[in-house]
Amino acid sequence: MITHRRAGRPLPLRSAATLTLAAAAGLCATAPASAETRVRARYEVTLSGFEIGTATMQTGINRETYDINLSIRMTGLARFFTGGKGAATARGGLHDARVVPTAYALNTRANDKGQIVRLALAGGSVRQLSVEPTPKTRNVVPVSDADKRGVLDPLSAIMMPVAGSGDLLAESSCNRTLPVFDGRARYDIALRYDRTEIAKPNTENNADPKAKGGYEGKVLVCKASYRPISGHRPDKDNVKFMESNKEMEVWLAPIAGAGALMPWKISVRTQMGLAEITATSFVVDSDGMRASRDQ
Could you say which DSSP state residue 12 is in? Predict the structure, then answer.
């Protein structure tokens, strides 16, 4: 069953906050009590070098399931002009180094306008969908039933398991295509290995002493590209811009206890400047104890 509800027309100022919230959500979660591995991370959100928000993430992973939640809030002038904030949750299963989402929810608000998306999935296919406000259909490439099969929601897409018991930081771990459906649009995010960096969280401005520290070491830097499939307007400038965008990167940190990778940093060139979501802390616990990592 698919339902949609109509809401008022969003204000133009909403676009900047919505883009940042979506990018993060394409990144908070309360791990279930049975989780073997937990990731607790805090991120700084910047645009053109200026801090505009913060995000937190908690993820619980065991051998067969995962649970993620996202929380992001605009700060400074961005908060003054938009009041932007958002939250997202996702859960699902892990089978043969594949992510199989079962539920996703997104709730964002900016400029007194809200967006709510709920997905229920089975076997990688969308079974129920609710979107508020109702997606526009004029001049939009229709989303077919086929476009809703074999997909990942934006939050589950950041969980990247690696097959086998080899090196999580092997170059091949970067190379994958993420088939994403966000409730409105279907698109592919293709990742390819670019380089390896040494990550160290910037804790100078981190007000939460419990969140300081955590992972410091090698991360894979993957170049990313965007290919719209449906649910978009091909004539829109922002769609054309993203299709040809060569300045998109995802920095992936290894989650050794879970045999997976997760974002330490996301960098995307936008029409408003370079948007970056960078970890100020990235802590991994295994069975309640902080996991140590080799540099």
Answer: T
- Running DSSP on this structure, what letter comes out for residue 166? S
Name the pLDDT band for 7 (thresholds 50, 70, 90).
Answer: very low
Lowest mean pLDDT among 89-93, 155-159, 205-209, 228-232: 205-209
Q: What is residue 257's DSSP assignment?
A: G
Model confidence at 203, pLDDT cuts 50, 70, 90, reads low
Which parts of the chain are beta strand (E)? 2-4, 37-47, 50-61, 65-74, 85-95, 98-110, 113-122, 125-132, 160-161, 176-181, 186-199, 217-230, 248-255, 260-270, 273-286, 289-290
pLDDT at 167 > cutoff 60: yes
Q: Say if residues 54 and 116 touch (Cβ distance below 8 Å).
A: no
Instruction: Give the bridge partners for 277, in sequence order.
Output: 45, 266
Contact 258, 37 (CB under 8 A): yes
Contact 259, 287 (CB under 8 A): no
Give dist(CA 196, CA 251) in Å, integer.
Answer: 9
Q: Where are the domains of the chain?
A: 2-287
Task: Centre a 10 Å sphere on the Cβ of residue 199 and count the other Cβ atoms it contains.
Answer: 18
Dihedral, CA of residue 91, residue 86, residue 133 and residue 111, to nearest 10: 180
CA within 13 Å, CB half, 3: 6
Per-residue pLDDT tens digits for 37-88: 999 999 999 999 999 899 999 999 988 899 999 999 878 655 545 557 899 9
